[in-house]
Design brief:
2 domains; 238 residues; 55% helix; 13 helices; Endonuclease III, domain 1; 0% strand; Endonuclease Iii, domain 2; single chain; mainly alpha
Length: 238
């Protein structure tokens, strides 16, 4: 039995998403999913069953990019614990300069591996020196932004796509290599095998230009199916 879809309340009902609104705000995300539901009967049925996902907006900048790297290959719970320690050590805010001020002993106590210490320092150094202009990523072409981020040590295509989707609100960004998305798509489309990137791209082609909204829904759908709030994050090695 399915439940009635409850759409997030918009302060101005029946309005269109404005050009200046964040592309993946709560209302904009719901509007995009409504459009996708008109095109995709499987998504429409799943949306009716489990409802709308919460938006996944993050503040653009060093801290968010660092947090994406910290969360790689660890469980959601472990990543949250490590990040909480890092926030405390860098208080009042996690910045490139404050991260660089932490020595190896402090970073080890926080829970970072030697490899992630190196990745974090590499990121902090290029941000602090101005060699990496994070503000420019928000306005430049998507492919160029992905190339810039994925060229950093410890940051592959998945890391770049997650940053563009969550922090920059690139509504069509599609992290097709994400394992949870692949499992979500497999369940949504009732496929015998988990689709790889090529198949994921083909399945999501009708979702353009809102594939990012579709991705957020698939994470929501995957989580609802597993019924496990503390599952490990599934994503490829960057």
């Amino acid at each position: 039995m399915t439940s009635e879809r409850i759409r997030p309340r918009d302060p101005c009902p029946e309005r269109a998403v404005t050009p200046h609104e964040h592309p993946l705000s709560e209302f904009a995300l719901a509007a995009a999913l409504d459009r996708l539901a008109e095109r995709d009967v499987d998504l429409a049925q799943a949306l009716a069953s489990i409802g709308y996902p919460a938006p996944r907006q993050r503040v653009p900048g060093f801290a968010t990019l660092l947090r994406i790297m910290v969360a790689q290959q660890v469980s959601t719970r472990s990543a949250a614990v490590i990040w909480a320690r890092l926030e405390a050590a860098c208080a009042p805010l996690v910045s490139a300069e404050r991260f660089l001020a932490l020595d190896e002993e402090a970073l080890r106590a926080i829970g970072l591996s030697r490899q992630k210490m190196a990745y974090g320092r590499g990121l902090a150094e290029v941000v602090a020196s101005g060699a990496l202009d994070l503000d420019a990523l928000a306005t430049g072409p998507e492919d160029a932004a992905i190339l810039t981020i994925s060229s950093l040590h410890g940051f592959g295509r998945w890391s770049a796509e997650i940053y563009l989707l969550f922090a920059l609100g690139r509504a069509d960004c599609w992290p097709a290599d994400d394992l949870a998305l692949q499992i979500g798509m497999q369940r949504l489309k009732r496929l015998d095998a988990r689709p790889g990137r090529k198949a994921m791209d083909a399945l999501a082609e009708p979702w353009r230009p809102w594939r990012g909204a579709g991705a957020i829904f698939l994470w929501h759908y995957y989580g609802a199916a597993t019924l496990d709030d503390h599952r490990a994050d599934h994503h490829p090695r960057s």
